[in-house]
Write a structure and sequence with these properties.
426 residues; six-stranded parallel sheet; alpha/beta; single chain; seven-stranded parallel sheet
């Protein structure tokens, strides 16, 4: 049995889709997977693994206790033997879990995590060295681990369901934009990012305002934690910059069909982040057909360029960094986007859209890249990592029960053959 610990908050956790997909991959390869789902509230599902809800506020009290109880039940024969614990969380969360004697040293521990920026500090390198296997979700992160001398590290290439994250037909795109009130000559820009300092939403707003001043009819769709206690006051900031009428705000945790619709309407995906450990919304945008405009830092270049070291094979638009500073988060370096560079990149997207070159030069190679990120590859890496640290066993896969797939999980949206009603709202 594998105990899998991660954030399963179906309202829009960055880990949720990763955790679900990897648990499915393990189950399909014969592992009995039991997940401890932080933020999971018991929604019905038909995935081939079980999930025990863990209260977010008490997660680091409940998880050690739950794991200890599972260990005792296993020893008594009421549960299968625990072969490994797989944890997909940020490094500070691993650091906390590995301090508990109920966890550290009891069973093999595999960590899955991002490294948002470098250099990897010694304290965090020590945490990774405590793991039996340290699986980082970007090639940038693997380079940082190599530089820090981590010998038990490997790269796990996180996948994307590109059947669900499909390109809309041109007819669908036009009708959806019309239903949402956007015209063909407008530049619709989408941002899907949390409302916290690293995502740098204030710079994104400055870039939108700069594009408007440059004569572009830009409209910004922002999907975020609008009422975040540690984030910006979005309306106040938009009013101060004179663009309140150009912003559509939506709370994170949208049903998948609504989120896909926003990507399908967008010309560009804007991400002014100071650092990124992976950022799957960039790959989602590439899959659906929105041109990526993102800060040229940390893991972003491996999405935007076919060869990030030589900057060859462009499939997105990198925004220059204006300056850097050392952050309290792991003493890492943060990159502050050059706002003028952001405006210039949006102008490039708009001009290429108008002259008809955007599809061939950017969107087609971007879609090919998204399609190359298959979950089966990530599953093979994780399965090999698990089997390399404990004796391989034949386990009967759990049966799949009839159930309901929560609305936030990617699903294939049928191609719309009929016209969208004029009065339809999204």
């Amino acid at each position: 049995m594998i105990v899998f610990v991660s954030d399963f908050d179906l309202r829009g956790s960055g880990y949720m889709n990763i955790a679900i997909a990897l648990c499915k991959e393990l189950a399909e390869r014969g592992h009995d997977v039991r997940a401890l789902g932080i933020g999971y509230t018991g929604a019905e599902h038909n995935w081939p693994f079980s999930i025990l809800p863990v209260d977010t506020r008490q997660a680091f009290v409940h998880i050690p206790a739950m794991f200890q109880n599972m260990t005792v039940l296993s020893q008594q024969g009421q549960l299968p033997p625990i072969d490994a614990m797989v944890v997909a969380l940020d490094i500070p969360m691993h650091e906390r879990l590995l301090t508990y004697p109920q966890i550290h040293g009891q069973v093999p521990y595999l960590g899955i995590f991002p490294i948002e920026s470098g250099p990897l500090c010694a304290s965090w390198a020590n945490v990774l060295n405590l793991m039996d296997k340290a699986l980082v979700i970007s090639k940038f992160g693997l380079d940082q681990m190599d530089d820090a001398g981590i010998e038990n590290g490997d790269y796990i290439p996180i996948g994307l369901d590109t059947d669900s994250w499909r390109r809309p037909t041109q007819k669908e795109r036009s009708k959806l934009r019309e239903a949402m009130g956007y015209t063909d000559d407008q530049l619709v820009v989408l941002t899907v990012a949390d409302n916290q300092e690293r995502k740098n939403l204030s710079a994104g707003m400055d870039i939108i305002a700069g594009a408007v001043e440059a004569g572009i009819d830009a409209q910004w769709i922002l999907v975020s934690r609008i009422q975040s206690p540690v984030g910006w006051k979005i309306d106040d900031m938009a009013i101060s910059k004179g663009i309140i009428d150009r912003i559509a705000k939506l709370e994170r945790g949208l049903p998948f069909d609504r989120l896909w619709t926003l990507y399908a309407c967008a010309d560009a995906f804007l991400l002014p982040s100071k650092a990124e450990g992976l950022c799957m919304p960039l790959v989602e945008a590439m899959a659906v057909g929105a041109a990526v405009v993102a800060t040229d830092c940390t893991a972003v270049p491996e999405h935007i360029f076919e060869n990030p070291k030589t900057r060859e094979g462009m499939r997105g638009f990198p925004m220059d960094a204006a300056f850097y500073h050392q952050d309290p988060w792991g003493n890492s370096i943060r990159s502050y986007v050059d706002k003028e560079s952001g405006v210039e990149r949006l102008k490039e997207v708009y001009e290429m859209k108008i002259n008809g070159t955007l599809e061939e030069k950017i969107l087609t190679p971007a879609r090919a890249y998204a399609e190359s990120r298959q979950w089966s590859v990530a599953g093979e890496v994780l399965d090999e990592a698990v089997r390399s640290i404990f004796r391989a066993k034949e386990v009967v896969p759990p049966s799949v029960q009839n159930g309901v797939t929560p609305a936030t999980v990617p699903q294939i949206i049928p191609i719309a053959e009929e016209d969208v009603d004029d009065d339809q709202t999204i």
